[in-house]
Structure formats: C-alpha cells, structure tokens
Amino acid sequence: MPDHDIEMITSEQLHAALRKSQKHFIILDCRSSHEYTESHIRTAVNFSIPSIMLRRFAAGKIDITSTIKCRDLKERILSCYKESTFVLYNNSNESVGDGGGVGREDLVLLTGGTVAPATTGGNNDTTINVLHRKLKQDGCRVVCLEDKAKALRLSSKPDLERILAL
Questions:
Q1: Are strands 141-145 and 7-9 parallel, antiparallel or unpaired?
Q2: How many structural domains are present in the chain?
Q3: pTM of the model
Q4: Per-residue pLDDT tens for 14-58?
C-alpha cells in the first residue's frame, strides 16, 4: 500500500538541511507564476502548469519531466528521482497534502499542520495535492513546507538570506 502520510518540514529544519547539502533537495513552488515571480525560496522551481496538463499528470498520462521546461531541472530529476527529497509549498491558506489513504479519504492537510474535512474548502485536485500524491506513488520522499510565509519573513535574518529570496 502506498504511503500517504503527510510529512511536514519547518523553515528552520529546511534551512539546516540545505546548509548541509542542497543537491539532495528539489524545492517546488506550487503557486502561480505571478506569485513565484514576486517572491520565492532561493533554488525553488515554479511548478505551475495548465489545468489540462495537471489532469493528465494526475491520471498518469504524462510524467513529471513532461511538465518541466527547464533542462537542468529535468536532468536533475532524472538523475536522482528517488534519491532526492521533494519539498513542496504553496500559499499558506491553500490545502496541502494528498487527501488520500486508508481512513483519510475525506481529509486534507492545511498548511500549518491542521487536518480538516475535504468539504471545508480543501481541493484534492490542486497542484500541490496532485504533485504530492504522484511523487509518493512513485516512491519519492516528499515533505511540505509548514509555514512558507514565515520562511519568507525570516529571510531578513542574515543566515537565511542565502537560502530565501524575496
């Protein structure tokens, strides 16, 4: 049975892990391209795709590399797909997680670690949910950033400036 547990990482934990080694992390920003352009975590790649491609990706008709234009990222994903840790984040008010698994079909995890019924506005077809579910199905380690807004606020600290970009 696939593992559908939602693993969270704080901005502090991510910072410490990135200081040790950036090559084992692939950070995917699941917000719109406009929001990504305004601010994002340094080394993060925007994973904003048209809804038709998202549906095809969710259905297994295309793989993750088909959705990525950046040649370097494609090569990085292909070379160490299952060895990398994928860090996903979106807006703090959008749902995060896969909403699937035994006993969790009707739950989504909201940013900050709160589990809520899917009927409270959680959408299992959002980019971050589809991406989380597909990566977990492929056997990848996936973590969701607990508080992206806090991470961006902390970027004013000198030791975090190298990792977080505004």
A1: parallel
A2: 1
A3: 0.71
A4: 888 888 876 788 999 999 999 999 999 888 889 888 999 999 999
